[in-house]
Design goal:
The structure is a homodimer. By secondary structure, chain A is α+β, with helices and mostly antiparallel strands. In chain A, 31% of the residues lie in helices and 25% in strands. In chain A, the strands form three sheets. In chain A, strands 1-7-8-9-10-4 form a six-stranded mixed beta sheet, with helices on both faces. The first copy, chain A, has a six-stranded mixed beta sheet with strand order 14-13-12-15-11-16. At the A-B interface, helix 8, helix 9, strand 14, helix 10 and helix 11 of A face helix 8, helix 9, strand 14, helix 10 and helix 11 of B.
């Protein structure tokens, strides 16, 4: 990490200048009725925006409207609810998302097409608009409201996920803050990942889109809790220039620094989601090196991190490298067995396609750490990718099967 | 099912005329030392052959030799061991597989390149050739030895998988018999599926290959226990013509009947594997209809049947259709939400993209059956595909994580 970039103590989305947030309780989270379930985050000044959205063919209406407003370049504020995903409900879903945008815009003195709408929760249930209509005007936005907003998007997350990074740039300090939620799935169909990021840097819109895509590809797109992509996944980034200075453009030294700070923030939030994965107690990292291409390195790292057999081995602290090699082999990446090497936390357990006799208790000891790294070297090229997964536990199965019966 | 095709009582690979089999105990299955672990099945007459092999980039040496002999069209017998996969062991793996073929050929009075070699078990461990050398000559082949062979390929399977179908054809009865093993994975890296099929029909080699590919694509390739493809998956089919009559050629009425009988047998064995999946107590079927193409129907059916969230819902008898729709949406198949319909055992729970209010207890009752069918209609075309999966249980996690520690 660049020495000039640092994480801010208790950082959140409102750590960046010119952002306000707040939340309230409308009554949508029956499983946690005491908690915030409706909130807003807003830039106090015009800003540029970028977004990344689920690739699922089935998408929440909230996402479709948000994506349209991001595409127009209009986004300046986000209204979010948890408890209900506003997905697979037919045309009422579209009307409800539009009304949420209109109500929130009214409350903020903005236009509806400056709003993003985020929803997370049950699929197939309509939003209770009467509750939302009466609760929304109660949201009080403040410059310290980030933690409220971080809580209002939680479903079965056991902890809020928020952070901010800052770095000096010319006479200024640039801050990027953000919040995220992960997938708990104690309640069904909550496999939703949402993140809202805000920066007080002025950033040229084209570069902002490119920077967000790059950061998301290395962070949120490289984590997996259970391989099920939700209908609502969204990452939004607003850049309002409140820190002052000229807009950051692609190719400049400022752009490189901004990219690295954004990467660090996204990675931090993404890892927090995996660590809090449903039933999970352990984060593991899969680093694939020496692949023929970036695409193959990514496929290999993601396939290994998402293998049920690898994940149960991590759960049992079992240095079971045969499972890693089998997952690698089916990933779609080119593999030449006699060039393969494999390391557990830097202990080499296989080289040149051959197992190395290792002292098993020592490697089990390595596996017992709360974070474990598997490093696979393919020996075929220069491409590298890293993915993160969590252990698959009995608790995951119990939580996800004990719902109705 | 065609009324002329019937399953034979206690059918197995040696139900087809002109096949002999036998097995012995060499000492490779330390987790079940009292069981057969080395066996042979052999056609007593020349035959045509076809094979289907794992697509994993990392492959057992046993497979590579078998595939080569199938490609040459030479295969007439198969020697198989369980307990050790002969995978990821470097060059000794090649030498050992060749020696197994040589020893078995000698025992049978055949040439080594007429042998297939199948191995299933631990990855990364060398075959104990001293044990195999002394045990192999003890194998006694008989025309009733099929059940012995079915047992010698078992690893953590709780029951042998064997069956045979027969149908009349002109003056003759054609029989196709087969054995298979599934993936228990109590012991790690045993995720191996093997099947050997034999028929006394005379079948032209080109059509035999085509028929096996077609049958495997609809059966073994449509099941999933945990999404992890093994390094050793193999299906072999030998056709020796012992029933008499001219060779079956593509495009004939005899070919269609043979195909259907082969499909039925493969489907029966494939479903037996899923039903005996590690930790599984329940088989479920996912039938996708109305897809734009066969490829999309297959992707959709397989993605749903392999989703951890769908599998835990089945485990909990939870009619949680949101998870099915979310898995469908990420499958890669084209989906238009407003055309979707969904049925649980013929009870419609969603139509035109909208949930239908259903009496939940009645659907839970449906889900409690030992076999459950989810039928998804995409409303976009005519393509249909069916896949099979099993419930994901706490026992699966416990078995697969409780190995070394």
């Amino acid at each position: 990490m660049n020495q000039h970039i640092s994480f801010i103590d208790k950082g959140t989305i409102t750590s960046a200048k010119g952002f306000q947030a707040g939340a309230t309780f409308a009554g949508m989270k029956t499983f946690a009725p005491e908690k915030y379930d409706l909130g807003i985050v807003c830039s106090t000044r015009p800003c540029t925006c970028a977004g990344a959205f689920t690739q699922n063919e089935v998408r929440s209406f909230s996402i479709r409207i948000t994506e349209e407003n991001v595409r127009k370049g209009n986004l300046r504020a986000v209204v979010a609810n948890s408890g209900i995903a506003n997905a697979v409900v037919g045309d009422p879903g579209r009307k409800d998302a539009l009304e949420m945008a209109r109500l929130a815009a009214q409350h903020l003195g903005l236009q509806p097409d400056q709003m993003g709408v985020l929803s997370t929760g049950l699929i197939g249930v309509e939003l209770p608009m009467a509750l939302i209509r009466s609760a929304l005007p109660k949201i009080k936005l403040t410059e310290t409201g980030g933690p409220q907003f971080a809580r209002c998007i939680m479903t079965t997350d056991t902890a809020p996920k928020e952070a901010a990074v800052a770095y000096p740039s010319s006479q200024r300090t640039i801050t990027i803050g953000g919040v995220a939620k992960g997938s708990g799935m104690i309640h069904p169909d909550m496999a939703t990942m949402l993140s809202v990021l805000g920066t007080d840097a002025a950033v040229e819109a084209g570069f902002l889109r490119q920077a967000l895509k790059s950061a998301v590809d290395r962070s949120f797109n490289m984590i997996s809790v259970d391989g099920d992509t939700s209908t609502n996944d969204t990452v939004l980034l607003l850049a309002n220039g409140a820190a002052g200075g000229p807009a950051i453009a692609a190719g400049s030294p400022e752009a490189a620094l901004f990219q690295e700070a954004l990467d660090q923030l996204c990675l931090h939030l993404a890892k927090a989601i995996v660590r809090d994965g449903e039933g999970a107690s352990k984060l593991f990292e899969v680093r694939v090196e020496g692949a023929r291409s970036q695409a193959e390195a990514r496929m290999a790292a993601r396939t290994i991190s998402n293998s049920n057999l690898v994940r149960t081995a991590v759960h049992g602290n079992d240095p079971n490298w045969g499972r890693i090699v089998a997952a690698l082999g089916r990933s779609g990446a080119r593999v030449e067995e006699e060039r393969l090497s494999l390391y557990v936390n830097d202990v080499c357990i296989m080289e040149g396609g051959l197992p190395i006799p290792f002292f098993k208790d020592a490697v089990i000891q390595q596996m017992r750490q709360p974070e474990v790294t598997f490093r696979v070297h393919l020996g075929l090229g220069d491409a590298v990718a890293t993915a993160w997964g969590c252990n698959l536990s009995e608790a995951y199965v119990t939580f996800n099967s004990a719902y109705t019966t």
